[in-house]
Design a protein that fits this description.
Largest sheet: 7 strands, parallel
Bound molecules: 2-phosphoglycolic acid
Order of helices and strands: EHEHEEHEHEEHEHEHE
Mean pLDDT: 96
Helix content: 25-40%
Number of strands: 10
Strand order of the largest sheet: 1-10-9-6-2-3-5
């Protein structure tokens, strides 16, 4: 596990974007895994800069996102697909047909939807670099603390703490969807390289548990200790309890 500590969230973004750019330079048709939330935004801004300056070309890249709310289609402003379009995909030359966000259409056969998503990733050769954030409770994607590590892409029900954390993006806490589709821990662990970004001292306890604590599904991110190529990119606040 590599731990890299930066002065600011912007510096994390610059460094993480360089990892994605170098991946694309080495393997233009790579699979990239993306995350939503506030922490990845500086990374996306820098990826756009590297595209505009002609350094990174995303025309052959395929993308997969970690998760999606159930109940919103991709045009809904609170959907994660919409978030990704606004914050990254509309500003780089990734092809529309190469963008994958698991569908959160209500009343679907979620088991089938999840299985098909994982199979698509596998059939294209697996994710080369997966970007992750981390929740205050140690969740990754929507894999909440639990008594077991989840497997493939599946339906999840949000915990109160996640609803509480995500309500800042909505008018009312009641508007936060109660369920989502999320890549499972096993799907995430299959990525060849993982970059976890985290900024702010409010994440210090989660980072400490993930990096130094026991490997337990009570802190889903702790499983990353077993991954052969994971880099935690932190600011001083997030790293303050290490
Ligand atoms: P954040 O979310 O980047 O908005 O803090 C991360 C997460 O909850 O996974």
């Amino acid at each position: 596990m590599n731990i890299r500590i930066f002065k600011s969230a912007d510096d994390i973004g610059k460094a993480a974007a360089m990892i994605f750019a170098s991946q694309v330079l080495q393997k233009p048709n790579c699979l990239l895994g993306f995350a939503t939330g506030s922490t990845p935004l500086p990374t996306y801004r820098q990826m756009i800069e590297l595209y505009k300056s002609g350094i990174a070309d995303y025309s052959s890249v395929t993308t997969f996102n970690l998760d999606e709310y159930i109940g919103f289609d991709g045009n809904h402003p609170q959907s994660y697909r919409y978030f990704m379009m606004q914050n990254l995909f509309n500003h780089i030359n990734v092809k529309q047909e190469n963008i994958n966000v698991v569908s959160g259409i209500p009343n679907s056969n979620f088991e089938e939807v999840g299985k098909a998503y994982d199979q698509k990733i596998e059939s294209l050769g697996g994710i080369d670099v997966q970007l992750l954030g981390i929740g205050h409770n140690g969740h990754v994607a929507f894999n909440e603390p639990s008594d077991h590590f989840s497997n493939g892409t599946h339906q999840v029900f949000l915990t109160n703490s996640t609803i509480e954390a995500n309500k800042r993006f909505f008018e009312h806490a009641d508007d936060v969807p109660r369920s989502a589709m999320s890549m499972g821990i096993a799907s995430i662990m299959k990525a060849r390289n993982i970059v976890l970004v985290s900024a702010g001292s409010d994440k210090a306890t989660a980072i400490q548990a993930a990096v130094e604590g026991p490997i337990t599904p009570e802190c889903p991110a702790s499983i990353l200790q077993l991954h052969p190529s994971v880099t935690f990119m932190l600011d001083e606040g997030a790293a303050s309890k290490l």
